[in-house]
Amino acid sequence: MAHVRGPFPSYLSAVAGAWFTVAWCSAAHVPPQGPPPAPAGAGPREVSPAQRLGIRVATVRTHIPHDSRVVVVPDGRSFIEAVGAWSLEARYPVLIDDGSWLSREAVARFVRAYSPAQVVRWSAPEQALPLGNDADRRARIEAAAARAWGAPSPAQLGARWKELGFVPPGVVVAWSEDPAWTAALALAAGHGQPIVWHDLRGDGAGVNGWLLEGQMAAHLSALEAAMADLPWSWDALGDDIDSVTICQNMPGKTHTGPVPATVRTALATTDVIGRPRAAFGASERDPAAAARWAWAGQVFGTESHAAYMAMCSLFLSPARAWLFDGYDSSAPWNEWDATAAAVHLERAGLQAMLDDEGRRGIDDWRRRAAGLVVNDPRVPRDEDAPPGLLTHRRGIDAGLVFVNTSGNQDFFDLKPGQGKPVDVPVLRVPAAVYFVHSWSATAPADRNTVGGRWIERGAFAYLGSTYEPYLQAFVPTPLAAQRMLAAYPFGAAVRLDRAAPWKLTVIGDPLYICVPSKERAVRPLPGALRGASSISEEFADHVKAGRFTDALECLRLLGRDRDAARLLAAIIKDRPDALTPDVALAGLSAAFFELEPAMFDRVYHAVSVRIDPDPDLAGARDLRWHAAEVGR
Fold first, then answer.
1. pTM above the 0.85 mark?
2. pLDDT surpasses 90 at 284
């Protein structure tokens, strides 16, 4: 097994001596099934391929410093140049503000979690060439990924990695005409992965569609041929290449046998990719069907959304978890017990908000999302929270979410009650979500489905089902939590070992690991980003000039919700005529998060003329539903 060497110190020697020192915990190896891990001091066990892969990813993440600065760019051209200015001395998150409400919400969500010392805005100089045709874009993406590792050109990247003693942990499969190319660039540059250019999108069915059996078989053959051309071993777990990240808006479902698919023939595309072509369509009893040479995941969406998903994976670590268990405490449901999972998370130092026995109905769900949960000893109470409440803010402030429910693509059953997609909580920070439930991810690009709403709300990694999977298809929730804490990559932590292809899909970067980065500091921006402007300074100028829309948008990008709510309050008190629809829209999410019911109603009324007819503002319209919980 080749792994990171040279200037990237290997953790494998540390593992051999004292087990695992990268993540919060120091537990022994968590087996795929069977008893819980041995207690500390029981001695090391053999490192599994999944955990070895996580260690390789963690080595890069913890060795290259992260800058305490977020760079916001307006377009793909600027994104390429900003990521291409990364180096082995420092990296910084790059997010795209394309002017849409959703992209600005994504930036705000990321900034709340990352807590940077500075947020700057930068755009590629006007004299820089625009993105040209497909070949030109592909060349510029590859050149930027190579520069991030100090290689003068893509052709010299392999030699540069060899010089560093570095072996890539996986590959990225992209198509430069697909908008998710932004994630391909970020994940190739961030983790150190070659890009394989292959169009997996099929006949335009989109993320919610199906890849026909013949199409899937052809794609698997083409991918294996491309892998064979690379200079690294790839065809078994534990060798060089152990992950495949699809950065395309490809269909999330495929099947074997005749159309229409059935519960026996429907499969998740991400559970087929990474297995031998010869295994596709084999009997599930055939050992070849269970073979896997890589764990796979998919990033999709617009340029801004795909970039957001990638940056969350590369730069964020969870501080809190929320666990909601809608299952009974009897067998077999108790194997997925969220209370047991919460114990593991708390032992590792994560704050765990738990809703289980006695608090698992639809009212409990909605109150948690609305910030109206009574004091919970597991979570410190905000200093300015109203008496009896956990927090003064709405929304879920958790970077890890575990949910056990039953239902379909458009509802989830609780005890008692039933939730709809609109009940998926608004996330204050990006989250990795483990959703034990049938059908939630059958159409993840459709906001009218459960999984689709989680993705829109800000989930950057998601495990869900594309079809009816049966409960036994899911890794027990306590084990999934243990694996994540032991630095299993997300794509491996949520997969059963030695299982045949089935219906669960991994949305997001399969190499995401729950490992804290090194302490961040503000470093000089690279010369290529000369001219970047501080959004804090922009805000001050806008306030002085009375440009309230621009001022509120700056506070939004800075994640300064309280300051935005105070500015709104001042506008309503002193300049009520200035509360225009544009001003109200810029401050709407701040009024929502800061639990100001009267203010939110006033602001929403001012902006409703904009929101109601605009499908691109459906997410803003949902805030009204969640805000109403205060009065229920």
1. yes
2. no
